[in-house]
Structure formats: structure tokens, C-alpha cells
Design brief:
By secondary structure, the protein is an all-alpha fold. It is about 75% helix and about 0% strand. The protein has one domain. Keywords: Membrane, Transmembrane, Transmembrane helix.
Length: about 90
Amino acid sequence: MNKYKKLALGIFLDVLGYVSYIFPGLGEFSDIIWAPLSAWIMTKLYKGRPGKVAAVVNFVEEALPGFDAIPTFTLMWLYTYVFHSKK
């Protein structure tokens, strides 16, 4: 997958994670489904150890109430393609 398509998908997935804020109280129950699903998606987008670590961070971030505002997919894209890119 092209890195910019991966960025667009990551931003979309981060926004999708914010949807739980639309329904106060009920939204946290949606995280029960979204947390493992988003962690699985993270492992498919980013292979190897970095992807696994990001998946764990993503799962914890989505599972804990109030931490949904962290754009985990976008941060992982930045780590992969900006800060840790091989030249």
C-alpha cells in the first residue's frame, strides 16, 4: 500500500475512533468492540515488532476511557515514514 494511502486510512481510522465521543456513556461500550479491532488493523498495516507494539498501545489507548483523542494510527505513520525512515 502506498504510504500516503496508508496515511489517509490511518487518519480515517483515528476519526472513526473519535465516534465514541458522539454518544456520551454509550460510546465507551463501543470501545469494547473497537479496541481489539483497531489493534488488529494496526498489525495488518504495520508489520513486525513496531506494528505489534503499536497494536498494544492502540488497544490500551482505545480501551481506556478518555484516551480516545490520541491519534495512534497517525502517530504510527509518522514514526514509520518520518522519524524512523531508512535513508
